[in-house]
Design a protein that fits this description.
The protein has 125 residues and is α+β, with helices and mostly antiparallel strands. The protein is built from 3 helices and 6 strands, in the order E-E-E-H-E-H-E-E-H. It is globular.
Length: 125
């Protein structure tokens, strides 16, 4: 199937951390990645604990996705500011959260492009 998105997504399963506006942290798992955003699997505790404009995380809320240095192959953790695009409940305790990256500096953009290139190559192996 031909990808028609402006920024194609590629499977990318990794353990990550989410950090909220007040510094709270929750574990999450990524499931796909593009140069524009990242898809996340988040627990109910996470979507409630990170909520800013309602009872659960909602489109427009902001979170920071923290990729451990082992995942990003950087000196330290890679912090990526994101805005929530969509939140979809898939079970009683599990949500899929789509995000867009915001305000990436050149260094973070370069690392992100390398991660997406790696995900693209692995998809076809």
């Amino acid at each position: 199937m031909h990808e028609r998105r402006l920024y194609p997504r590629f499977p990318w399963v990794r353990e990550v951390q989410l950090r909220g506006a007040r510094g709270e942290r929750f574990a999450a798992r990524s499931f796909d990645l593009s140069v524009a955003g990242i898809g996340l699997e988040v627990s109910r505790d996470g979507v409630v604990g990170l909520a800013q404009s309602g009872g659960i995380l909602c489109p427009g809320d902001r979170v920071e996705v923290v990729l451990p240095s082992a995942v990003a192959a950087t000196q330290g953790d890679l912090d990526l500011r994101c805005r929530v695009k969509e939140v979809r409940r898939v079970s009683l305790g599990r949500y899929l959260v789509g995000t867009w990256f915001e305000g990436l500096d050149d260094a973070n953009q370069t690392v992100l492009e390398e991660l997406v290139d790696d995900a693209r190559r692995r998809r076809w192996e």
